[in-house]
Amino acid sequence: MTVRPLLLATAALLVSAPAANASTILGSLDTTAAPDAFACATGCPVAPSLGFQQFALKGATVEAPEDGVLVSTSVHAKRIAGTEDPQIAVLRPGDGNGMSVVASAPVPVSSGAGERVQVDDLHLPVQRGDSIGFLFRTGEVDLGVRNRARPDGAVQAFATPCDPCGMDGGTGMELLVDAVIEPDTDGDAMGDESQDADGGGLGLDWEDQWFDDFEEGDELDPEPTARSGRVVPRDLRLIDANRRSVLITAPKKGRLSISITLPANRKGEGPFTTILTGDMRVKRPGRVRLRLKTTPAGERVLAKRKRVRTKAVVAYFPRQSQLELLMRSARL
Predict the structure, then answer these.
(1) What does pTM read for this prediction?
(2) Which pLDDT tens digit goes with each residue over 65-108?
(3) How far, in Å, CA of 141 to CA of 208, rounded?
(4) Three-class SS string for 149-211?
(5) 3-state secondary structure (DSSP) of residue 180
(6) What is the set of domains in the chain, with CATH numbers?
(7) Spatial separation of the C-alpha atoms in residues 122 and 104, rounded to whole Å
(8) In 3D, which of 124, 217, 216 has the Cα closest to residue 179?
(9) How far apart, in whole angstroms, are the C-alpha atoms of residue 25 and residue 230?
(10) How many CA atoms lie within 13 A of 98 on its CB side?
(11) How many whole angstroms separate alpha carbon 114 and alpha carbon 146?
């Protein structure tokens, strides 16, 4: 975990900053869901190799909103025969309805029963407007799908190799394949959030002003103690955080509330997506462990990403005192 305090003067700061680059999940809303069927179970276009692309799905993003790099993918697929790995592909639109496969990477699929497969540590460059596709050899692999209420779930199937790809459209289907696209500010094909140690070379605004290195086991600043030996906190502090709970020092009785959010860019500017929340009553001053609950948006993000850089906003309502707001940055 990484932690550093940033004092909030007003809660208005949370909503005043414009949107900017942030990681994006393209494709399926939930690749962990059990498939209703497989794409080629009722017949596929006749071709040695095929590709599938989701070009419309209610509530999902199917085109990259900004340039970046594809860092991970997950897919629900099964092995029918053969040994050739299918591919996750970056599709770039061309003239008319055609598009080109501009980058791809293997996705190992071995289970004949069908299961979700996740691949991390990918480095596929993506441009704004690109989409993702899943490519495989006909008769060797099949792709899990879920039924959608028409006209939702528009997909395209195409023969490969293709440059550009000619498309045949269909509806009523969610392809169980997705990909995480992260910003790549310095253009080194390393995702700024999960792969690039310097945050994409964003300098002091990101590394030095937002985050200090803090590892589990580091000694925390000591608090003063009473004669009884009980810790007496000087002020409100967030001293430890993980995905399940936070450790806070509360100097008075009162009420604590916390929201852990994902900012829209590397500088910690909004808009913000709330992924974890918590609330409790503090009966006496001291250190308190506040349990966190995951929001629906948080469940999707945390299931797909091992590490996220967040901002935690603590609202403290001490008895007979004014509200205190405190913001911390944390890598969870």
Answers:
(1) 0.58
(2) 888 999 999 999 999 999 999 999 999 987 666 788 999 999 99
(3) 47
(4) CCCCCEEEEEEECCCCCCCEEECCEEECEEEEEECCCCCCCCCCCCCCCCCCCCHHHCHHHHC
(5) strand
(6) 3-20+208-331 (2.60.40), 24-182 (no CATH)
(7) 10
(8) 124
(9) 47
(10) 13
(11) 14
